[in-house]
Amino acid sequence: MVNQILSVIFGVKDSKFRTDDDFVDRMSRRYTTTLMILFAAVVTMQQYVGRPIHCWCPAQFTGAMVAYTDSVCWISSTYYVPMDHQLPMPEDPKLMVSYYQWVPFILLFMALFFYIPSLLWRFLSKRSGLNVAATLDAALAGQRTNYADIRDKTTRYMVHNIERYLAMRTSRGVNFHTRVKYQVAKYCCFMWGSFYGNYLCLSYFFIKLLYLANAVGQLYLLDLFMGHNFHFYGIEVMQRLYSGDDWSSSYRFPRVTMCDYQIRHMTQVHRYIVQCALPINLFNEKIFIFVWFWLIFVVIMTICSLFKWIWKLCFWPGQVNWVRRQLRPMHDIKLNKDALRHFTEDYLKRDGLFVCRLIGNNVGNIVAAEVLNGLWSNYSPSRRYHEDDTIPRDEQHHNPMNSAQKPSSSLRRATESAIHRLHRMDSV
Fold first, then answer.
1. Which domain holds residue 195?
2. How far are the Cα atoms of 27, 79, 115, 293, 357 from residue 302, in angstroms, in the given order?
3. How many domains does the chain have?
4. CA pair distance 413, 422, nearest whole angstrom
5. CA end-to-end distance (rounded Å), the chain
6. Sign of dihedral through CA atoms 345, 347, 351, 356?
7. For the whole model, what pTM was predicted?
8. 390: which DSSP letter?
9. pLDDT per residue as tens digits for the range 312-354
10. Mean pLDDT highest for which of 165-169, 308-312, 416-420?
11. Do 253 and 229 meet the contact criterion of CB atoms below 8 Å apart?
């Protein structure tokens, strides 16, 4: 259902299957977007199927006049006056309630802005030269298959994609100035560029910041549009619940308002003041209470996710230890620490680690370990082990992962077929 909604509104056909981000990103681009669209549909149905406003008109009004009054008060906005207050004079300032006609559009624009960062991430990741989405799709297809040959082919396909990206990045000529910048980028992860191994990593950090800025910004945009310090709305609701007050009687979403309008009869202009009920605010109130708490939750989760990824990718000792933990179960002899550090810092760099981390987060550490083992197996066999250890005999003659360096067309077709079957099974 999520995929169909997004495909109709935003023209997105594969949002359901995308795994090139983490769960917190999917909270924004998929779950929040879907929630906002569903809320917009509920409010729209109430507006155009039911009666969103009921005005108490004078007894002499005919049915047509009552319908006209409802329509005029709906489109011209109403104002809120507590029952224990006197009605203001026409020239006095009023607490206008003018947002309810625009609630469906507000929710749809919120959905759109929550999805825009994912479109930008897709654009930036494709420009890197590594198809992150295809690599993650292959990882998911290999993890779900029951056939060992398909699992092996998808692993080789992923290793080939990553190795091709690493080779393309390191094959460029360098001069002294470039080497200096590379050393700076090695220990400062804010040098943006594929040659420095930071392009995907920093692009992802940038997208995370966009998700965070979007969630925080939407709170303040709602405050500007709806007024009355909306960014404190959830706190006020909790205070009312704690003190035992009626939290539902709020001036933010009043259910009874006043409406001033004029009717021209021949040369005379008659002014009327009527009292109107807004049943639609029953829905708006509950929806925006949920939206407030959901936005706060998304902000907190996005901040935690951002710092988690910074910790994972910007501190080399932790990255080297993570690679060692993934490789250790697959190697009986002790790994050369210097070679492992060089493999992590100078070969994989942050982009290679980022892709492996994504595989581990979305598919599982077992698949990530298999990919890392394939990359490690193709990386300088003479440097992989301690000097007092001998290279395994089977690696001296044949390395099964070397075939990943240039996969055949049959391998590519088999991998694409496995991914297609996976998508078809998920869509059932």
1. 2-118+131-427
2. 9, 38, 15, 14, 17
3. 1
4. 14
5. 11
6. negative
7. 0.80
8. P
9. 888 888 889 999 998 887 765 567 788 888 899 888 888 999 9
10. 308-312
11. no
Please check whether residue 123 lies inside any domain of the structure.
no
Query: What is the b/e burial string over 120-158, where b = at least 16 CB atoms within 10 angstroms of the residue's CB?
Result: ebbebbeebebebbbbbbbbbbbbebeeeebbbbbbbbb
Are 88 and 81 in contact by the 8 Å Cβ rule? The answer is: yes
Residue type, position 425, single letter: M
d(CA 374, CA 351): 17
User: 173-206 b/e with 16+ CB inside 10 Å = b?
Assistant: eeeeeeeeebeebbeebebeebbbbbbbbbbbbe
**3-class DSSP state of 50:** coil
**Residue 126 forms part of a structural domain:** no
Written as one letter, the residue type at 308 is K
| 331 found inside a domain | yes
Q: Is 256 a domain residue?
A: yes
Helix (H, G, I), strand (E, B) or coil at 400: helix
- 58: tokens are 């004078």
Residue among 359, 323, 416, 403 nearest 163 (CA): 403
